[in-house]
Design brief:
CATH topology of the largest domain: Aminopeptidase
Radius of gyration: 23 Å
Number of strands: 18
Mean pLDDT: 92
Strand content: 25-35%
Structural class: alpha+beta
CATH architecture of the largest domain: 3-Layer(aba) Sandwich
Distance between the termini: 34 Å
Amino acid sequence: MLRGTITVRSVNSDEEFRRAIDLQARIMVGAGYVDYIDKMKREAKLWPSLKRENVRVALRNGTIVSTFRIFPLHVRIGCVPVPMGGINNVCTHPRYRKRGYMRDLMADAIEHMRRTGALVSQLHGIPSFYYKFGYAFIGCDYRLAVETRVLVGFHKSLRVRRANHSDLPDMKRLHGATYGERTCTVVRDEKMWSRLRPGIDRVRVVVDGSNRIKGYFWLANRKDIFRVTEVCVDDDEDVIRTMLAECGRLCRLGIVPEAGFDVPPDHPLALYCRGYDAVIETRYKRNSGHMLRILNLGGLFSALEPELSKRLSRARLTGWRGRFGIDTDIGSVFLSISDGRVRSSSARPRGSCDVIRMPQSLLSQLLVGYRSGGDLSNDTVPAPLRDVVAGLFPAGHPFFCPEDMF
């Protein structure tokens, strides 16, 4: 069947914006259409660019057939906030699917994000689709489960109450302390916190005798299960025990058998619960879920020089000196290491230089810790580089907070 005349670009009028958002809402949520439209209108006020340049459309003979939104955000890779284009509400009208419209739209969007300064792009993808555009799975689904019978055995030594808007400064402090260097978490600026404000009635805070907030947990908007989507705490056992006791009380009231917590396995809550009857699950997906691709290889490695230098120090390799290149399907980057510092360049250095070859999708996984440099084969990494590559790309627990879902 003929594709017709295809145009891919941003929306260029308020009417086109309305039609694109309408299609996204109808395809994405169906029965929740009205609430979803209201939500997207609120977000458009927070991110004015969503009204035009970051709402992308593919038009067939003037009709919008495919569309999605790009959120201009920052994502952490270790200690470095990296400019990121977050893609959501990806949809094609059912009548026009499987004709390549989304392929054209994705190619256009990748170039648009590069032009506007994003170094990486991130999305939550359906199975076996986005890998075609260079996106690699980089974030596991982590879940801590504790049965209600265990939770009711904990006792409160602190007070728990509902959060209110005046608690936001303390919540920001706790979130920064918990996730300030957690790879793949979104940097929450004032716009992001404003986006979360309508859900603050689902937050419970733990306060001490001086009414200082020591921790908070965010309840999912679910009635069928008890799920906690975010936990931020001071590293204090009294806070964690009080939080668990309150969750036990709420589970018993709701007559649910267990509480589920969305936390990575090295989170203070997960570490504490290792001493009790608890289940910590890590779910791996193939070509779906939280995915990332590199947009600007040279710019990304330049931004990550402080993080790579910190990794070198943690691996006790500050005395290592040398240089090597990484060659990918989107270009090459060359690393020079001396005096405990990592410097990057897109220009090949003079003289001999070992080069490691890999697709940028694998490099994305290495940078965030989903894959480890120590796991690369001997055929990929020359023997003199194995220690330094393992140190620069250590295994980790990249984590995307559910409340940051864009």
